[in-house]
Amino acid sequence: MKATLTVLGSGTSMGVPTLGCECSVCQSNDPHDRRTRPSIMLEYAGKVVLIDTTPDFYAQAVRENIRAVDAVFYTHTHADHILGIDDLRPLSYRHRPDKLPLYARPEAAAFLRRMFAYIFDADYKFGGLPQLELKPIDGPIDVFGVRFDPVVVIHGEMQIYGYRFGSAAYLTDHSEIPDSSMQQLEGLDILFLDALRHKPHPTHSTVKNSLAIVDRLRPKRAFFTHICHDLGHEATNATLPRHVRLSYDGMKLEFDI
Ligand SMILES: [Zn+2]
Ligand SMILES: [Zn+2]
Ligand SMILES: [Zn+2]
């Protein structure tokens, strides 16, 4: 089945430009150096599936003219991946009397229920609530005819999810990928990996580390995301192998899902 993947955001948690920073990347005129918080959109079979809803989701949805959302997968519950959840509100109404499904690791679903109690607590009364339903997942799930496989990755002290869908996989925040998860990532056409910067970080991957993952897994194409202001787009791409690129906001890929 044909699918389109759109990069809604390619930046790290603080975004690029980073507020208050006057470095050359934050002051760059290259639109590729403007990175909103990390998320992607998948379109296939007339459906729209998001991975994460960032604090920039509203602006991303306006930019990409998103008119409907049919499901959301969450990688984990750090603020840069979830804070756009309330902006699903107008897009959730068309699902009534059903609700827009949100898929997440069980611990992440429980956290979302607590953090956004006003949405999920049926006793909490005020108007205009997003119509959302949490669906904890601990294994593969079929969504609109496509199998989504959670891929467990280590993010500092936490275990979180990346996802494989058909011949593509999206891993946003990882300091380590366990061997059991590496096995789930063989034979990919498209692989997204965390590449925060060059300098090591306790909860994120570096360019060098993610290049080593690409060498081991040998996807046809790899794209880096969750990028901070240490990496200028053009200058960094010039140092990467041809089949590995920094992703950027608005980038679109066609693939067989
Ligand atoms: Zn993050
Ligand atoms: Zn900067
Ligand atoms: Zn995170």
Describe the main β-sheet briefly. 7 strands, mixed
If you compute it from the alpha carbons, what radius of gyration comes out, rounded to the nearest whole angstrom?
Answer: 18 Å
Query: What would you call the structural class?
Result: alpha/beta
Q: What number is the mean pLDDT?
A: 97
Helix content range: 10-25%
**What's the total helix number?**
8
Q: Termini separation (Å)?
A: 6 Å
The number of distinct β-strands equals 14
Q: Write down the overall geometry.
A: globular
* Binned strand content: 25-35%
**What are the low-pLDDT stretches, counting only 5+ consecutive residues below 50?**
none
Neighbour order of strands in the largest sheet: 6-5-4-3-2-1-14
Order of helices and strands: EEEHEHHEHHEEEEEHEHEHEE
Bound molecule types: zinc ion
